[in-house]
Amino acid sequence: MTTFFSCDDFIEKARAFHGCASPGLMIGASMTELALHSLGRIQDYHALCETVRDLPDAVQLLTPCTTGNGRLHVLELGRFALTLYRHFDGRGVRVFLDIAKTAGWPHIRRWALGSDGSDDRARVRLEHEIRKAGISILSASPVQMKSVFLQDSVRETMVACIACGEPHPAAAGPLCRACAGQSPYVPKLPAVARHMP
Ligand SMILES: [Zn+2]
After folding, report:
1. What are phi and psi of 133, to 5 degrees?
2. pTM (predicted TM-score)
3. What pLDDT does residue 3 have?
4. What is the mean pLDDT of residues 13-22?
5. How far away, in angstroms, is 186 Cα from ligand 1 center?
6. For residue range 121-164, what is the model confidence (pLDDT) as tens digits?
7. Ligand 1 centroid to 177 CA: how many Å?
8. Which residues pair with 168 in a beta bridge?
9. Cα(136)–Cα(2) distance, rounded to whole angstroms?
10. How far is the CA of 160 from the centre of ligand 1 (A)?
11. Which pLDDT value is given to residue 2?
């Protein structure tokens, strides 16, 4: 397996951070390392993941890019791909799992096409293939990011929402987005109703 990191070391970190060293996380680690290598290991870079599944955690484990520091962007495009790019000019490299290169790796191919080997033997074989295949199942190509991904996030002016009272961006208007109908929570029942049988 051609890698730039210690596989066992990564598995241990992955278990502590992600809960397990899933196939997606293992492949994601190779993708991150290939992207880092292609980028030339510069300091000022951001990451973009095209899926919410596994990849963002591989990036967070192996790079300084996290969702919390604003350097990891996640777009749910449903593609198992990630890009690392220079923040100052948007030039970067996109790495993806190349299905054309999985012909010799039947378990990886099945996993990539959505059928999870559910029994233990299939899982062991999949992990074995991932370790052996390394970066050979990946492709990389240069990309130029759109300018929206280069702008530094400017701290917005905040005002108190007229309904919940919590600070929110003034640009959204007097109601915060949650009170304006985008709340993910079921509305609370009035106190009186809660005590009714
Ligand atoms: Zn509100």
Report:
1. -70, -40
2. 0.79
3. 46
4. 78
5. 14
6. 888 899 899 999 999 999 999 999 998 888 665 677 999 999 99
7. 7
8. 159
9. 8
10. 8
11. 36
